[in-house]
Amino acid sequence: MKTLRAAATAAAVLGAVAAMFLVPQLLGRPMTSVGPVVGYATVRGHDAVIVAYERTGRGMPLPFGIHDVWQERVAAVSLDTGELLWDTKLHGRTSWTRGVLAVADGLAYVATDLGLTIVATEDGGIVARPRDILGDEYVEAYHAYNVERGSTP
After folding, report:
1. Residue-wise burial string across 102-137, b where 16 or more C-beta atoms lie within 10 A, e elsewhere
2. Residue 60: which of 102, 86, 26, 89 has the closest Cα?
3. Residue 12: in which H helix or E strand, if any?
């Protein structure tokens, strides 16, 4: 009888622990935080908004970090239909601020607290990452790249 009670208690405890990790994974949705600065471009014939955003994983991550919980991303969304035209992961770390600083000649210049990334507006392909642009001397700060025209440093 004691063995049966101990087995039932162990099964209940294991079931509760499993539920704490599995239920958020199955029912949770990622949270997103959109940057305050967006850009506009024509993407595959659509007028589109280019938006940088943070995606914070699905609920509670499983032990030992096997999920990619934090991501900085940039996406193009059609202004006419709301269709997601492309969505690109910039990196797997989170930062406080992100934004599309400029769009010109088929390129979007996206800054996060981890540096400046250049993305092709047509398909979301990454053209250059922070180290590609400035080498190892790049600045990991959104505001380092957010300079208004005519302002002085």
Report:
1. ebeeebbbbbbbbbbbbbebeebebeeebeeeeeee
2. 26
3. helix 2-27
- What is the C-alpha separation between 100 and 104, in angstroms, rounded? 11
d(CA 91, CA 81): 28
Judge whether 73 and 89 are in contact, CB under 8 Å.
Answer: yes
Q: And the tokens for 66?
A: 């096997």
More confident residue, 83 or 12: 83
Give 86-145 pLDDT, tens digit per residue. 999 988 766 777 889 889 999 999 988 788 899 999 999 999 987 787 777 666 665 666
- Mean pLDDT score of the chain: 76
**Which parts of the chain are beta strand (E)?**
31-34, 39-43, 46-56, 70-78, 84-91, 98-104, 107-112, 115-120, 126-128
More confident residue, 57 or 107: 107
